[in-house]
């Protein structure tokens, strides 16, 4: 099983750095907005696309990151991502038009971040089991801590070296992703070895192919390419979780959750200004959100690892998403600074809380062996809402002349996400109790039929009925 410590804490440190270099740097790109607008003479909408493209590319290409880390290695994937992201930022410092920034800062840097993000997070899941939520809490807090530290630093760099110099320095800073990649020492768990032996049992595989596959080293999965059938089979095994009902429900709920949480980070400051809060206080609300986000990451991770709450992590996640939804619903009523401060505290805390639990929830649904691929898909599902929801919210503000409709839509979207998962869990419980009553009524929990040398033991489990064929010696049967 996973070591739950030791080198695992180095993996957490590496993942912490990865979230600083990817998510925190992405958030800090918004600090360049005013500079880009002034330099290129473009309106807010066209400049805002840069941030949307980076965010979207990071999430959209997440499955590519999972694929590279699964078939080559996690270390190679993250190092390659670091080089691409750094190249994108360095090229951006030479941009002469906004379109150049769409490509270099948006697509190239975003793609580089995608290769690093989901494989690094998946590695934490492979090294931890008992302390999984705490490990994720620390690793994911890089986003909040990074934003808190990097935002003033980036502002200072822009003042000292202009936006071009600041982008060049950020490009150098992002090269630290290569160091993070080097820390990601591979670990082989029992469940990772299941795919090849299962494949070897298939009838259509010839003896020579079986021998070749058995001699294959675990360290070089690229050799699998030599056997086309094996590659297709292994690729299917990697993504067979897509057909799991539990994962399908999680995927739909993630779409609604990502739609609801995204616009608030874009429109909290404009909304605060519109209700008469000063610029300084509006910026302070964003700072509170960032700092409390970190506290939410770590404390909620630690709390849900306690024995009393560990069984109820699913409902802790639902509660956190639902609370954020409620916060959004109440936001249009909060029309002054003293009322907006507690909102920032509450929303920030629960935002940090459920972000920590997303990988834990995914691991609980699909298991550790498919975690990298599943996280790639889950983060990929964030991409579309991230790209679509801020413009939709902006259109609602333009059309209705107030922020109420936008915030209500966000709130209901998150509450729907939470309710959907709640109903899915209730349906699963009802199904379990129904199966349990069926088995107890008919007294079919365990039957033994003895026929010569073979006994069939039919054991009914709650989730899946497994039929085991036990070869039992005829004498031992008669002795029983």
TrEMBL record:
The chain crosses the membrane at residues 6-25, 76-95, 101-122, 134-158, 164-184, 247-270, 282-303, 315-334, 340-362, 374-397, 403-427. It is a multi-pass membrane protein. It catalyses: creatine(in) = creatine(out); guanidinoacetate(in) = guanidinoacetate(out). It is found in: Basolateral cell membrane. InterPro entries: MFS, MFS_dom, MFS_trans_sf, Proton-linked_MCT. Keywords: Cell membrane, Membrane, Transmembrane, Transmembrane helix. Residues 7-429 form the Major facilitator superfamily (MFS) profile domain. It comes from the Eukaryota. Coiled coil: none annotated. Functions as a transporter for creatine and as well for its precursor guanidinoacetate. Transport of creatine and GAA is independent of resting membrane potential and extracellular Na(+), Cl(-), or pH. Contributes to the process of creatine biosynthesis and distribution. GO terms for biological process: creatine transmembrane transport. It comes from Scytalopus superciliaris. GO terms for molecular function: transmembrane transporter activity. GO terms for cellular component: basolateral plasma membrane. This is Monocarboxylate transporter 12. Belongs to the major facilitator superfamily. Monocarboxylate porter (TC 2.A.1.13) family.
């Amino acid at each position: 099983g996973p070591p739950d410590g030791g080198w695992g804490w180095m993996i957490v440190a590496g993942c912490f750095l990865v979230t600083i270099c990817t998510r925190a740097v992405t958030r800090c790109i918004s600090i360049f907005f005013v500079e880009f607008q002034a330099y290129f003479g473009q309106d807010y909408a066209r400049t805002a696309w840069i941030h949307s493209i980076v965010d979207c590319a990071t999430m959209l290409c997440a499955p590519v990151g999972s694929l590279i880390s699964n078939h080559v290695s996690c270390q190679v994937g993250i190092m390659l991502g670091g080089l691409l992201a750094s190249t994108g930022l360095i090229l951006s410092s030479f941009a002469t038009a906004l379109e150049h920034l769409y490509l270099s800062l948006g697509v190239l840097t975003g793609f580089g971040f995608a290769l690093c993000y989901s494989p690094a997070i998946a590695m934490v899941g492979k090294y931890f089991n008992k302390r999984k939520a705490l490990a994720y809490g620390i690793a994911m807090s890089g986003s909040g801590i990074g934003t808190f530290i990097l935002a003033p630093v980036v502002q200072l760099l822009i003042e000292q070296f202009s936006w071009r110099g600041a982008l060049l320095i950020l490009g150098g800073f992002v090269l630290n992703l290569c160091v993070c990649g080097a820390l990601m020492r591979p670990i082989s768990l029992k469940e990772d070895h299941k795919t090849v032996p299962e494949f070897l049992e298939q009838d259509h595989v010839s003896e020579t192919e079986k021998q070749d596959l058995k001699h294959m080293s675990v360290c070089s999965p690229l050799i699998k390419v030599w056997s086309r059938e094996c590659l297709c089979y292994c690729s299917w095994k990697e993504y067979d979780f897509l057909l799991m009902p539990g994962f399908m429900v999680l995927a739909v709920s993630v779409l609604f959750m990502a739609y609801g949480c995204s616009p608030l980070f874009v429109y909290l400051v404009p909304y605060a200004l519109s209700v008469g809060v000063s610029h300084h206080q509006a910026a302070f609300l964003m700072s509170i959100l960032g700092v409390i986000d970190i506290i939410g990451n770590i404390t909620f991770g630690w709390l849900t690892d306690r024995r009393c709450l560990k069984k109820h992590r699913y409902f802790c996640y639902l509660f956190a998403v639902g609370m954020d939804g409620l916060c959004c619903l109440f936001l249009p009523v909060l029309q002054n600074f003293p009322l907006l401060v507690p909102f920032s505290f509450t929303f920030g805390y629960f935002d940090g809380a459920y972000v920590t639990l997303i990988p834990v929830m995914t691991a609980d649904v699909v298991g550790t062996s498919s975690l990298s691929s599943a996280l790639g898909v889950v983060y990929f599902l964030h991409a579309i809402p991230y790209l679509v929801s801020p413009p939709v919210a902006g259109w609602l503000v333009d059309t209705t002349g107030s922020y109420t409709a936008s915030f209500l839509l966000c709130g209901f979207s998150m509450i729907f996400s939470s309710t959907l998962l709640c109903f899915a869990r209730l349906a699963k419980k009802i199904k379990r109790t129904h199966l349990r009553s069926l088995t107890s009524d008919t007294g079919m929990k365990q039957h033994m039929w003895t026929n010569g040398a073979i006994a069939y033991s039919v054991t009914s489990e709650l989730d899946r009925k497994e039929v085991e064929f036990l070869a039992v010696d005829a004498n031992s049967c008669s002795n029983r």
